[in-house]
Design a protein that fits this description.
The protein is an all-alpha fold and 489 residues long. The chain contains 19 helices and no strands. α3 runs parallel beside α12, α7 packs antiparallel against α16 and α8 packs across α14.
């Protein structure tokens, strides 16, 4: 057995041990879905960052940097700006609003905040979460397949009943569904701590190794970019005029989505106290800058060292390929575990959010099914299994890239919930009717705009859907009868 596989198996064993430990206390719905707000804030902070940066960061963004070159910098700037805005402006306000409710899910928080349209908000928010998270979780499973196949963890020695990537998707799905079933939110957060640590080691360590390897070959990134063509050496990919502006908007618009990701917002809801965020945001910001800078540099160093030819047409395998070429087997195993960790830390969080939408918002709040605490947890675990299975089926049938699937789901969730969250915490006249209109607009515009290539080429669906949803929500509140004003903190 190779050192790479041994290191990866040690990582998996550690995840299982953490999950078993966390599963010892799961006697209430609040404990299963929110950790009963008793998990240390610094642990939740790393969990939020790990679950926010999925296989998209280690596979999608690294591959995009390799394929696009300097023009991908706008995506990096957009994402970092969005994360900092979330932590420095939105997070404390969301956590403060939770104190006035008994909500343990985002749809329930919105329903209690805007009680005049409570049930409508629960239904709309839940269906949007289920729809877009199906694509999001499936993207993480596709990412697992690529990683495990490329690194040889799943090799030609495996039975050839299916393609090798199918075995990777299957293994990733089994692991994520398994430990989410066991430990709920507590298992997810504590495994995220491990996974977030591995991710940052991978994203900081690999560019450092790449730098010394390139230096030993007397090469440079600038020379490689020029040799690869003027498009890759340009901050706007060789475009000008409206096309350059559209590229800029498309990249920066990634940042708008962070306000509307339920699996990230629930981390703020799980914090013991709102006041902790003032200190924790510096930890989140440091992690973010290091992680995104490292992902971008991995793509550029790979271009300088190997060019595009090394990957056989699939640029999203750049990180695991670079790790296996430059590092000893056991170190490569740890680094590659970081990519699998990125997939798992996002997929488990999203599974839990969808589960809460079913078991808490639909079953308990809408259908009024009063179950015992043990029965509620059992229902939640059953939903984890069903939703995980549906995402697994979608992953097997999809031919999209990880970057593409995440972009679609991210845009839909960001445009549906982001403007709602921003207006809710800043505008006293924002109402339940405005919230419903905003969410529906964000979803519909994302689906329609993304599938009309002329529109999407002119202005990214990520930007268009968010702005139109915000505008519709504002207009509905302006023309409808005023509601009781609420003080915002």
């Amino acid at each position: 057995m190779s050192p790479l596989i041994i290191a990866f198996l040690i990582y998996l064993a550690t995840v299982v041990i953490i999950s078993l430990f966390a599963s010892r206390k799961q006697d209430s719905q609040s404990e299963f879905l929110l950790g009963d707000q008793k998990i240390p804030g610094w642990v939740i902070t790393i969990s939020e960052r790990a679950s926010g940066e999925s296989a998209w960061l280690l596979l999608g963004l690294t591959g995009a940097a390799l394929g696009v070159g300097l023009g991908e910098i706008w995506t990096l700037i957009g994402c970092v700006s969005g994360i900092l805005f979330l932590w420095f402006f939105i997070g404390r306000r969301i956590r403060t609003q939770l104190d006035a409710t008994d909500a343990i899910t985002l749809p329930e928080l919105l329903a209690q905040r805007f009680s005049e349209t409570g049930n409508t908000l629960r239904w709309v928010a839940t269906l949007i979460i289920i729809f877009f998270f199906s694509f999001y979780v499936a993207a993480q499973m596709v990412g697992a397949g690529k990683i495990l196949q490329k690194t040889g963890i799943i090799s030609d020695s495996w039975p050839q009943w299916f393609g090798l990537e199918v075995w990777g998707i299957t293994l990733g799905a089994v692991i994520v569904i398994g430990y989410t079933l066991l430990g709920g939110f507590r298992a997810v957060v504590w495994t995220d701590l491990l996974q977030g640590t591995i991710m940052i080691v991978a994203l900081v360590g690999l560019p450092i190794v790449g730098y010394f390897e390139l230096k030993s070959q007397q090469g440079s990134i600038s020379q490689a970019l020029v040799a690869a063509g003027p498009d890759k050496a340009s901050w706007f990919s060789g475009l000008s005029g409206w096309q350059a502006f559209s590229l800029l908007l498309s990249g920066l618009a990634w940042g708008l989505g962070y306000m509307g990701q339920p699996h990230l917002l629930v981390r703020f809801m799980a914090l013991p106290k709102a006041s902790e965020i003032k200190q924790l945001r510096w930890l989140a910001g440091t992690w973010t800058v290091l992680a995104y800078g490292g992902a971008f540099l991995i793509g550029l160093f790979a271009l300088a060292l190997y060019g595009n030819e090394m990957l056989g047409g699939d640029l999203e395998k750049v990180m695991p390929t670079m790790a296996t070429l430059l590092l000893p087997g056991w170190v490569a195993g740890i680094i590659i575990s970081g990519a699998v960790a990125a997939m798992m830390s996002t997929a488990d969080s999203q599974l839990l959010v969808v589960t809460s939408a079913f078991s808490e918002d639909i079953s308990r709040r809408i259908l009024k099914r009063e179950l015992s605490p043990a029965a509620q947890v059992a229902l939640s675990r059953f939903v984890v299994f069903l939703v995980g299975g549906a995402a697994f089926a979608l992953a097997l049938s999809s031919r999209e890239t990880v970057y593409g699937m995440v972009s679609y789901a991210w845009s839909g969730l960001g445009a549906s919930f982001g403007p709602v969250i921003l207006l809710m915490v800043t505008w006293s006249r924002f109402s339940g009717r405005g919230a419903v209109a905003t969410m529906l607009t964000g979803t519909l515009v994302t689906v329609v705009w993304k599938n009309i290539s002329v529109l999407d080429a002119a202005i990214s669906h990520r930007f268009a859907a968010w702005v139109l949803a915000m505008l519709v929500g504002w207009l509905v509140c302006k023309i409808s009868s005023p509601v009781k004003k609420v003080k915002h903190l």
